[in-house]
Specification:
Layout: H1 3-23, H2 28-38, H3 44-59, H4 61-71, H5 79-90, H6 115-123, H7 138-148, H8 152-158, E1 165-169, H9 175-182, E2 190-191, E3 198-201, E4 218-220, H10 223-230, E5 239-242, H11 249-257, E6 262-266, H12 270-273, H13 280-283, E7 289-292, E8 302-308, H14 322-326, H15 329-348, E9 350-360, H16 369-378, E10 382-385, H17 388-394, E11 407-408, H18 411-414, E12 420-426
Parallel strand pairs: 5-6, 5-8, 6-7, 8-9
Antiparallel strand pairs: 1-3, 1-4, 2-3, 9-12, 10-12, 11-12
């Protein structure tokens, strides 16, 4: 693809992605996959640049948009074209060649009036640190300030970087052997620093096309997600309810971690829950899981209830930046109510001596620590379990945010998705 054709394609795809954020829940990767299938002339380098640019702009959407509003309002250009130009000049350090991309053949962006002065104005914009405060809406940045105070800048900046590509090697396979096979296709692949089951790739690989891996048990799973499952405290012979099982990744992982456990996976969305049957571990019959599609009617007393609740997803904004754009203040308030209700439901399903495991993929205090504190104030029969021992025993590193009994993983410190986990024991 010529540079001009690539710029035009990125602009068109970005428009479709932004429209989908408003009108549907179609994720950007599906839009990109569809586009690549329809435009097979795009080579691997073209596809990588297009994907990286789309996700780079989504992560910085609020910064780019604020620049257009505050610095470039006098220009009446298509918004997506402006977003692409600003991103390429200020964040891809492409100041000299961008002008050559216009009118670069029949399939390219057409050169608009005053484009030379527009580009000069963009070049002269100072990307000060204050500008990075606009990497999210003001109300969201305020939530981060309340959560982290002087650490807010480091955490919010870390969300502008690409996410990792992590794999989880099942206990039915050997991580060292799997890594040895993967190194033939990705010489920079390494073991994850915290999870004893993880492998981190340096690039995307079509695993299904690697014949040597056909008999291995591998799932794509961020290291943060692996860690909170490892820290869930599951024990042999337990009855476990995975109350918000989603597509079943944690349920399948939990089934590997203890002997003679029975796991009941349920979710408010039966169609989503049914997707567990498409996962590699399920297809290879490595599971001890019952699916319960009657989420609202489940009435069993369990040893452990896993509540991986719906949340802002702020811990995974590197991976799913569209969720930051989609999230509104009202939606956030609704999520807080949903989380509180799920904790209550999970608590009612516990035996005496059982544990409720509360998990979010959020960095925001109101969704995490505050929810736990509010529940404990109203429920004196429960106490928080100190996770220091579990972390030190399993992870063998004490690198986390603070010395509290819960764990908050942070992208800027742990270099994984920002998961939160707390365990609550029912004493009476």
């Amino acid at each position: 693809m010529t540079p001009g054709a690539k710029l035009l394609s990125i602009s068109n795809i970005l428009k479709e992605v932004l429209d989908s954020i408003v009108c549907s829940n179609t994720p950007p990767d599906k839009i990109l996959i569809t586009w690549f299938r329809k435009n097979r002339y795009a080579g691997s380098k073209d596809r990588k640049e297009i994907s990286d640019s789309i996700y780079g702009m989504l992560r910085r959407y609020f910064i780019l948009n604020k620049i257009i509003i505050n610095k470039l309002s006098s220009y009446n250009y298509d918004k997506c074209v402006q977003l692409v130009i600003i991103y390429y000049i200020l964040f891809k350090d492409n100041q000299k060649k961008i002008i050559e991309y216009f009118d670069d053949g029949p399939y390219s962006l057409k050169k608009p009036d005053k484009i030379e002065s527009y580009i000069e104005d963009v070049k002269n914009i100072d990307i000060s640190q204050d500008l990075f405060n606009f990497s999210m809406p003001n109300w969201l940045y305020d939530e981060f300030l309340c959560s982290y105070r002087d650490k807010t800048k480091d955490i919010s900046d870390s969300l502008l970087h690409p996410s990792n590509i992590d794999l989880r090697v099942s206990r039915y396979s050997n991580r060292d052997e799997v890594l040895k096979k993967l190194l033939r296709y990705d010489p920079a692949a390494i073991k994850t620093p915290y999870s004893s089951l993880g492998i981190r790739l340096s690039k995307r690989i079509l695993l299904k096309n690697i014949i040597e891996l056909n008999n291995e048990f591998i799932e794509i799973q961020d290291e943060g997600s692996q860690l909170v499952t490892l820290l869930s405290g599951i024990k042999d012979n337990e009855l476990v309810i995975d109350l918000c099982a989603g597509v079943g990744g944690k349920s399948l992982f939990l089934a590997e971690l203890a002997k003679n456990v029975k796991i009941i996976a349920t979710d408010i969305d039966p169609e989503r829950l049914n997707k567990i049957k498409n996962r590699p571990s399920w297809k290879k019959n490595i599971h001890k899981i019952d699916l319960d599609y009657e989420y609202n009617n489940i009435d069993i007393k369990a040893d452990r209830v896993i509540c991986d609740v719906p949340c802002s997803g702020s811990g995974a904004w590197r991976r799913r930046p569209e969720e930051k754009i989609r999230l509104t203040k009202n939606k956030f308030k609704e999520l807080l109510v949903i989380q509180s209700n799920i904790i209550k439901k999970g608590a009612n399903l516990l035996k005496v001596g059982g544990e409720l495991v509360y998990i979010t993929c959020s960095l925001i205090k109101k969704e995490n620590y505050d929810q736990i504190e509010l529940f404990l104030k109203k429920n004196s029969l429960f106490e928080i379990v100190d996770l220091n021992y579990s972390w030190n025993n399993m992870i063998k590193s004490k690198v986390w945010m603070n010395d509290n009994s819960y764990i908050q993983l942070l992208p800027n410190i742990h270099n994984c998705d920002g998961f939160f986990i707390a365990r609550l024991r029912k004493n009476k």
